[in-house]
Design a protein that fits this description.
The structure is a homodimer.
Chain A: E1 9-18, E2 21-27, E3 36-37, E4 40-42, H1 49-61, E5 63-74, E6 85-97, E7 105-111, H2 123-132
Parallel strand pairs in A: 1-6
Antiparallel strand pairs in A: 1-2, 1-4, 2-3, 2-7, 5-6
């Protein structure tokens, strides 16, 4: 396989509805520290992307979920100031767990999906795509 | 951004219909040398994934295309013997060009999408997903 350097990274972001609101986390680290974002993160080597998004949602929100559908792939090279990150985005359904902020998330906010505040990265665009179905 | 080593790579594969047949290429290199595959390849740094699949289809088949829809994301860590490669797969529509094998493709074969032969990687699974719409 070609060198692993100088290539896009793969991340996942998850859209989860809890109590009729969209689950977001306030970022505890840069970039976009202090801003709201969808729960998500980098895919690990050897990890299927569907497993990665379920893991990231669990780590950041405490919720157990299952993938419902693929929402889209977001790959604008400028969408992440750290470098080129391709985000694969899924809608998930809650199956268990209790909301509790963890790992990189400073706090959890349940927002109105029809009127989201300004969010980190291109997450407002992701929310719009998700709402279109 | 975390180290770029030890992470999955991002690839694209394209499903293009030409003269009512699915466009495939016979691989000129390992892995799966000599087997049929969908046109595709690795996404380059700074390249949106939709641009990558259009480029790979052009390089391998001579066809100009545009993305019609996202078919799926295929990320089984064992799907590529070279290492963990996440394939983002699109259906494309032909817009121009002439079929001519190029770069990694030894030859082009137009196959019946309803009865594809054994293909490289997990491309038979990708074709099945695409046919389900």
């Amino acid at each position: 396989m070609p060198s692993d350097r100088g290539h896009p990274r793969v991340a996942v972001d998850g859209l989860v509805v809890h109590a009729d609101k969209l689950v977001t986390v306030r970022r505890g680290h840069d970039p976009f520290r202090g801003m709201l974002a969808l729960p998500g993160g980098f895919v690990e080597l050897g990890e299927p992307v569907e497993a990665a998004v379920v893991r990231e949602v669990r780590e950041e929100t405490g919720l157990e979920t299952r993938v419902v559908r693929l929402v889209g792939v977001f790959s604008d090279p400028m969408r992440d100031p750290r470098g080129h990150v391709v985000s694969i985005t899924y809608a998930l359904a809650e199956t268990a767990g209790v909301l509790i902020a963890g790992s990189d998330a400073a706090e959890i906010l349940l927002i109105d999906p029809e009127a989201p505040p300004p969010m980190a990265f291109d997450h407002n665009e992701i929310v719009r795509r998700w709402r279109r179905g």
